[in-house]
Every structure is written in structure tokens, then in C-alpha cells.
Design goal:
The chain has 149 residues and is α+β, with helices and mostly antiparallel strands. Helices cover 17% and strands 57% of the residues. A hairpin with a 2-residue loop joins strand 5 and strand 6. The relative contact order is 0.18.
Length: 149
């Protein structure tokens, strides 16, 4: 119950930001990895200013539908820093998705225009590590890949 209330508050907050910036440029991304709310998912990006975007998305996790919320800071036309909160670890016995903070750096071949984007993400998997004995580190590195529309 508590997790669903936190999810509802987070989604409401992101919806408020996106609706209050309706004049801002928006784009969509479809991809694989932690930046897309699970194994595969879609995000909506809203430009806050020329260097900062907020995003929220839904994706397919192994246990259930997952979500991600975060921001991107564009260092130049193609390079960006990303921070988000979403699914970042899965345990298979039984299937369970874990959420955590994720930080990374990425490259978008076409910048903010339609095209491919890749991010190398550092994941905080401490909650996942506490639930299983097969993981020996509280962090992991993963690649996220997507296409921006």
C-alpha cells in the first residue's frame, strides 16, 4: 500500500510538471534498460530549459509494470548526464523487481532530434543485494539503449 501511494504521488508530481510546461518541447523514447522503466519501455521527455529535461516512463518488468522518473542534463548537443529512479534489478526466484537510484552518462547521435541514444548507467542495487546472497556488490553498471521520436 505504501509503495503504491508513493508511486501515485510521484506520477502526480511528474504530471503536474509536464502539464505546467505544456508550451515546452516534448519528445518520446522507446528503449531497453533502466532509463525506460524495466526491460523495455517508453518515456516522455519534457524540456525544462535548453539544457534540462524531466522524463517519466512506463516499462515491462519481470514481476509487473514498472516505472521510471528522472532528469537529463545536456552538456552539449549530443552528450548528457542522466539521473533517475526506477527498476534496476530483478531476482528470479521468485520473480521480483527492485527499484533504486541510477546515474549515468549518455550519447544521443542526433542530439534532441529523432535518433538513437545510449547511456552507460551506474545502478544502486543495495535493496536487491539485501534480498539475495548471489550479488556481492551494491552497485552495477548497465547499458540503456533507445530511440528518440
Amino acid at each position: 500500500m505504501v509503495n503504491s501511494m508513493n508511486l501515485l504521488k510521484t506520477i502526480s508530481f511528474i504530471a503536474l510538471i509536464i502539464s505546467s510546461n505544456s508550451y515546452a518541447a516534448q519528445s518520446y523514447e522507446l528503449g531497453l534498460g533502466t532509463n525506460y522503466g524495466g526491460v523495455v519501455g517508453v518515456t516522455i521527455n519534457t524540456e525544462i530549459n535548453s539544457n534540462v529535461e524531466m522524463f517519466a516512463g512506463l516499462g515491462l518488468g519481470y514481476e509487473a509494470l514498472g516505472y521510471v522518473v528522472g532528469s537529463k542534463f545536456w552538456l552539449n548537443e549530443n552528450v548528457r548526464l542522466t539521473a533517475n529512479y526506477g527498476i534496476n534489478c530483478v531476482v528470479s526466484s521468485p520473480w521480483r523487481d527492485y527499484y533504486g537510484l541510477n546515474f549515468g552518462a549518455g550519447y544521443a547521435f542526433s542530439g534532441k532530434d529523432p535518433g538513437w541514444a545510449f547511456d552507460l548507467m551506474l545502478l544502486d542495487i543495495s535493496d536487491c543485494n539485501a534480498a539475495t546472497t548471489s550479488i556481492s556488490s551494491d552497485s552495477a553498471i548497465m547499458l540503456a539503449a533507445g530511440y528518440r521520436f
